[in-house]
């Protein structure tokens, strides 16, 4: 407490700041939001992506650390390359894209930046089930026309292409039989 009014006989603790006692507050970071109590900024403010990244970069449940690998991996949703880095992190950014395989195609899901504080309604998904050329064109157009993150376009196209290549049917090689001799 910054005002120094305590019930015990201890001397009052000095306030580190020169703000009035009503302004001293407790900052709690939870789910990407600041909650500031007893301040002119009371309510919730969105935490910046950089601050959220600094909090979770070395310690979160999605990290996969190995001894001989310098770059750590991450299994979080909406991380296109599964690399633990600020650029590809799907938890801290307001806009992120995820591509997952479905039967004969892939599902694109993305965050709506206006509903970033509402987890139930912030994710939108669309399934694309067409040939590879048309599917990749639609994905590129979806990212470009929605004015989404341009830095994720190439990674999203590569992931979708890899998913479509993995879904190709392998043709069985017909074995040629020797001709019957009379």
TrEMBL record:
<protein>
    <recommendedName>
        <fullName>Large ribosomal subunit protein eL28</fullName>
    </recommendedName>
</protein>
<dbReference type="GO" id="GO:0003735">
    <property type="term" value="F:structural constituent of ribosome"/>
</dbReference>
<keyword id="KW-0687">Ribonucleoprotein</keyword>
<dbReference type="InterPro" id="IPR002672">
    <property type="entry name" value="Ribosomal_eL28"/>
</dbReference>
<feature type="domain" description="Ribosomal eL28/Mak16">
    <location>
        <begin position="51"/>
        <end position="166"/>
    </location>
</feature>
<dbReference type="GO" id="GO:1990904">
    <property type="term" value="C:ribonucleoprotein complex"/>
</dbReference>
<dbReference type="Pfam" id="PF01778">
    <property type="entry name" value="Ribosomal_L28e"/>
</dbReference>
<comment type="similarity">
    <text>Belongs to the eukaryotic ribosomal protein eL28 family.</text>
</comment>
<dbReference type="GO" id="GO:0006412">
    <property type="term" value="P:translation"/>
</dbReference>
<dbReference type="InterPro" id="IPR029004">
    <property type="entry name" value="Ribosomal_eL28/Mak16"/>
</dbReference>
<keyword id="KW-0689">Ribosomal protein</keyword>
<dbReference type="GO" id="GO:0005840">
    <property type="term" value="C:ribosome"/>
</dbReference>
